[in-house]
């Protein structure tokens, strides 16, 4: 029994515009959801869901604008050379990204925000991310990476690669796709999460049993006014929101 991350969920006032931005940014395609309020962004070509390698992007319409508070979850984008990093930053700014200042100081990566202010990083070339695809990592701010490693290592069918006082790193057991990284920060949650992970049970596993297992690991139920929906909203031990989706 285990779960796998299948998409990063981003809330947006204009889901179509934010979805188009991320599709262009990643070189992927846009697939509109049947509800009219969701835009799925995934690798180019016919939609395969869940994608066997990529963690897709799901943009959901909400009425609230993002606050000035930095998101606790963001994407790191991979590059293959200094020239590629510079070209990508230029292209993203032409698409509507803006420079973002989150206290990063003098660093080799570039911090930007999408058209609705969601922060992300364009990394300098790193050997670790040479085969991840356009998304190098999904990065989560936390107070205790070791505690996050204990929870998420049990929650997911991914492999724990590293855990220290400052960070914990997981990746698919197949060695494909992006990393999931928990980085120690002094920030605490003050506003609802604008970006979160969506998880899916592995084939043959029961969603209700998986949710019960997560609660036993320390997850708590989360009422966001979602009503009667096929997914379950939970929070991890540091109150990061996530959803367990129903297989479809």
From TrEMBL:
PANTHER family: CONSERVED PROTEIN, HYPOTHETICAL FUSION PROTEIN. This is VOC family protein. It comes from the Bacteria. Residues 134-247 form the VOC domain. InterPro entries: Glyas_Bleomycin-R_OHBP_Dase, Glyoxalase_6, VOC_core.
């Amino acid at each position: 029994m285990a779960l796998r991350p299948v998409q990063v969920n981003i809330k947006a006032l204009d889901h179509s515009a934010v979805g188009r931005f991320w599709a262009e940014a990643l070189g992927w395609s846009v697939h509109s959801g049947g509800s009219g309020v969701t835009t799925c962004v995934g690798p180019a070509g016919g939609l395969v869901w869940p994608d066997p390698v990529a963690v897709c992007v799901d943009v959901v319409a909400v009425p609230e604008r993002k606050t000035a508070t930095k998101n606790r979850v963001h994407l790191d984008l991979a590059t293959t050379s200094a020239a590629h990093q510079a070209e990508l930053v230029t292209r993203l700014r032409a698409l509507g990204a803006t420079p973002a200042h989150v206290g990063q100081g003098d660093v080799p990566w570039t911090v930007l925000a999408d058209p609705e202010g969601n922060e992300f990083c364009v990394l300098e070339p790193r050997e670790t991310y040479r085969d991840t695809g356009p998304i190098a990592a999904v990065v989560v701010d936390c107070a205790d990476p070791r505690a996050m490693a204990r929870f998420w290592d049990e929650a997911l069918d991914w492999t724990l690669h590293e855990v220290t006082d400052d960070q914990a790193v997981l990746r698919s057991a197949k060695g494909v796709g992006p990393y999931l990284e928990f980085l120690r920060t002094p920030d605490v949650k003050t506003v609802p999460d604008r970006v979160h992970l969506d998880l899916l049970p592995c084939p043959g596993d029961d969603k209700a049993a998986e949710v019960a297992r997560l609660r036993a690991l320390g997850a708590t139920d989360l009422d966001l006014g979602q009503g009667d929906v096929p997914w379950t909203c939970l929070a991890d031990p540091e109150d990061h929101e996530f959803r367990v989706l129903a297989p479809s």
